[in-house]
Amino acid sequence: MGPGDDCALLQVPPNTLLAVSTDTLVSGVHFFADMDPTALGHKALAVNLSDLAAMGADPCWVSLALTLPEVDEEWIKQFCAGFFELAEYYNVALVGGDMTKGPLSITVSVKGTLPEGKGLKRSGAQVGDGIYVTGTLGDAALGLQKVLGNITVPEAHKAFVRNKFEHPHPRILAGQALRDIATSALDLSDGLMGDLAHITRASGMRAQIELEQIPLSAAMQDSVSKEQGWELALTGGDDYELCFTVPELHRGQLEMALAHCGVKFTRIGRMFTGIPDVELLLEGHPYQLQSQSWDHFRQP
Amino acid sequence: MGPGDDCALLQVPPNTLLAVSTDTLVSGVHFFADMDPTALGHKALAVNLSDLAAMGADPCWVSLALTLPEVDEEWIKQFCAGFFELAEYYNVALVGGDMTKGPLSITVSVKGTLPEGKGLKRSGAQVGDGIYVTGTLGDAALGLQKVLGNITVPEAHKAFVRNKFEHPHPRILAGQALRDIATSALDLSDGLMGDLAHITRASGMRAQIELEQIPLSAAMQDSVSKEQGWELALTGGDDYELCFTVPELHRGQLEMALAHCGVKFTRIGRMFTGIPDVELLLEGHPYQLQSQSWDHFRQP
């Protein structure tokens, strides 16, 4: 049963766990009130799917609670176009919804399945594991700073940066491929520094990151200094790339698996024994950052 | 795994379906901005559990997305007191959450389980079935009109009316008891007239209601005229009682089952062949109401 009855009824296959993630996006906090509704529809689902990706789950169902100041049919149509294009891409069925009047906000809850005993947790990292990330980091933060007028991005890179900011793509295939390879994983929503700290705390060890290894896009390199690029990569939010740890022994398996799904990835550091924390190295020497992590209680 | 990792992982027992319901409550639309936070915490969960009750499901898990204009620790503490008191009563575990800054709103998603092939749908009513409701109707609407200053409620009934308005109790036990007895069911959130119309449309037949049979509380009878009482019962929202249909053959079974869980219920009409609609009778003659249904796009 889908929307219409009081509840959606879902059949979870035997020997699988249900993975559930819920996120709220509020106008003026998580996105600009005048954001293109198609991009917003895409992003509202993408950030939730990213949580499933971080777990290695197979996306199955989604529910959508939309709060709107007024019934604007054209806006709703465009929002749904963005939302359902992504839903169809991953074969995710809408199984419930709610539409209410009020200040613009969107709550999405995605549900996926995982074979029992598989899920990628934050607590599984082992001493000696390599630390990896998919894609390039900081591009969404670069896009935000561009919109705010703080950074000028060369014309050739504008479309790329806007796309990374408005159209994050959840790393579903990479997450699934990492199920049997990674020891821990999460998605980068609040900046590498703060997010990786979750893995260090949950796993009880420290992480060492080599700044030179952090993958920066050509757009980033052409728009800001290296130091500014690292700052955006480490503390900027909304990248929705995966960060994960893999034992050296599985390195070959990792390369095959991610090559198979066409996802670029980079080794940026290693897990060590020690007090849970993230340590930054530049040319072998400790490096101190100014800001810490993306704060959702800070207005964009 | 509970909150903390990217997703909650839930184990759904074999041969059961997962029932999922999501609702958003927005300040100034679904509740007054100055509503007692403990009552609000209770109500936010209660209206969702009511959807599970309407399906006959066993509540298991809940996720909570809270959007607040500022971090007010005392408010959050009181909200959680109301929310978790009800969650513990039904042994519902929190398995995810999100807290963001923005205009006050609350999205709750509850998950329950149902033996395969059981769920109470809206489409199962049969010609000749009796139409029943639990409890008394219209009391929450009476409470709203009292707060708005439109109706004066005698001193002796004020606490009762306030409680029905702020502390709706989901009919979980009744819903479970009705699983093998009722042919259709839903919960009354928008008023009997509009809600019962869903059953008539889904089941493809008409409903005949005898106004004299509609259960009105002593508070209602002492506060307004009979006609006003019916109006509030038929078009007022927020009652969260169950409305369901039962074949005459199962009447004895129904009485035993609901007596067992201590829930009062009343037979208010019957299903007939005909164009899907709700027909009102007063002393055997057609009766016309003014307003239609509770509109969430109408400010309280």
TrEMBL record, chains A, B:
One of its GO terms (molecular function) is kinase activity. Keywords: ATP-binding, Kinase, Magnesium, Metal-binding, Nucleotide-binding, Thiamine biosynthesis, Transferase. Mg(2+) 3 binds at residues 6, 51, 187. It comes from the Bacteria. Its EC number is 2.7.4.16. Substrate binds at residues 30, 238, 294. Residues 126-271 form the PurM-like C-terminal domain. ATP binds at residues 97-98, 122, 189. Mg(2+) 2 binds at residues 23, 51. Mg(2+) 5 binds at residue 190. It catalyses: thiamine phosphate + ATP = thiamine diphosphate + ADP. CDD domains: ThiL. NCBIfam families: thiL (TIGR01379). Catalyzes the ATP-dependent phosphorylation of thiamine-monophosphate (TMP) to form thiamine-pyrophosphate (TPP), the active form of vitamin B1. This is Thiamine-monophosphate kinase.
